[in-house]
Design a protein that fits this description.
The protein contains 11 helices and 10 strands. With 297 residues, it is of the alpha/beta class. The protein has a single domain, classed as NADP-dependent oxidoreductase domain (TIM Barrel), CATH 3.20.20. It starts with 6 loop residues before the first strand and ends in a 26-residue tail after the last helix.
Length: 297
């Protein structure tokens, strides 16, 4: 079993690595080094976003790696303040400039905006144009719930290839996963190790996921760390996952998950940890004022 074998074929035939490297909340000072380390470790999927304000540093890390562009799968996301058809096209061009590349492998709408879904739809139509022009190899969405997907699919020409959502053993998103599967959309996990739970004290969950007895016991059984067991759970479910770290040892640790697998009983035991409680923002209430982020020029 090796990392090269774990590719996911998207609904348009493009192949995407199942395990990627995320840079959410990585500072500009940390990002280039972290990306360079990740690529040296073996990651070939790098996930960023305009709203992270570190696209330039992602591009720098990629160039430093010395790895050919066509060997690296780059994902970035359109921020909600740039929704609408023409603003989205301009924002995509700005992402290309910041990254220093001439195409994106996967371009995502960062959040649905239910209170102004026409703008969301306009942004997605821009993504369809970018795809048709060959400047993105695949397009998709992030944080879309079933009702948002259904609404989009009724009006879009191209089904999203990926839906990136909060997903970890404490929040397993069954309804979203079923909708994604129905339409051939890959489920991709952000905060796959559950770090978002450590940041949100309102969930009522006092045991950190990495310290959960079920995870700890499975880690000891397999001779792996709790983080590695959780990432393997994602892969064994067929999800894509994009763990984030700026610590070199953790970056390496999170990629060392290709020499073991969980059996169905073990997967079910982790599934049973679900709380049904979201720790991140509620997609049904999201708009550009939820996180008043300014994307750097």
């Amino acid at each position: 079993m090796n990392n090269r074998s774990l590719l996911i074929r998207l609904n348009n035939g493009v192949e995407m690595p199942a395990l990627g490297f995320g840079v959410f909340r990585a500072s500009q000072e940390q990002t280039a080094d972290a990306v360079e380390t990740a690529l040296a470790t073996g990651y070939r999927l790098i996930d960023t976003a305009a709203a992270y304000n570190n696209e330039r540093q992602v591009g720098e890390g990629i160039r430093r790696s010395g790895i050919d562009r066509d060997q690296i799968f780059i994902t970035t996301k359109l921020w909600v303040a740039d929704y609408g058809y023409e603003p989205a096209l301009r924002a995509f061009d700005a992402s290309l400039r910041r990254l220093g590349v001439d195409y994106i492998d996967l371009y995502l709408l960062h959040w649905p905006v239910p209170t102004d879904f026409d703008m969301t739809l306009g942004a997605y139509r821009a993504a369809e144009k970018i795809l048709a022009d060959g400047r993105a190899r695949a397009i998709g969405v992030s944080n879309f719930q079933p009702q948002h997907l259904e609404n989009l699919l009724q009006q879009a020409d191209v089904a999203p290839a990926v839906n990136q959502v909060e997903l970890h053993p404490y929040f397993i998103e069954q309804a979203v996963r079923k909708t994604n599967e129905r339409y051939g959309i890959v489920t991709q996990a952000w905060s796959p190790i559950g770090g978002i739970y450590s940041l949100n004290q309102e969930t009522g969950i006092t045991t950190k996921l990495l310290e959960n007895p079920v995870i700890v016991e499975l880690a000891a059984k397999h001779g792996k760390t709790p983080a590695q067991v959780i990432l393997r759970w994602h892969l064994d479910h067929g999800f894509s996952a994009i763990p984030k770290s700026v610590t070199p040892s953790r970056i390496v640790e999170n990629f060392d998950v290709f020499d073991f697998a969980l059996n169905p009983t073990e997967i079910a035991a982790i599934d049973a940890l679900d709380t049904g409680i979201r720790a991140g923002a509620d997609p049904e209430k999201f708009d550009k004022n939820t996180y008043p982020t300014t994307v750097e020029d």
